[in-house]
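Many introductory courses stop at the sequence. We go one step further.
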Amino acid sequence: MRGWVTDSLDQGDDGHAVFVAVRDGRVTGFVTVTTRRHFTGHVDACIGELVVSAEVERMGVGRALVDAAESWARDCGLRRITLETGAANARARSFYQALGYVEEEVRLSKPVSIMTSSP
């Protein structure tokens, strides 16, 4: 997990932002947002990572961070914001649905075993 969060935070261009939630001097969450070309050809904002500390879950921190990402997208003149989450992550899917996000795509995957040749 640390690798993809670090990768998301390390993007250092103008089409990228990080918003951090702080409570009592401690970081309680963050969201990363960047731009990405949608399959339609339009450029959208895209939430990369949304992380909220367990002690502040269900206290509005995640909602405030998503609001910040959406405001950034509007300020950049973008008309749409997207994100991806796991199909089995019912909590995240329910959270985003409550914020007005609609599922748009389905990505399928299947593990494949690697064949090894015998000498």
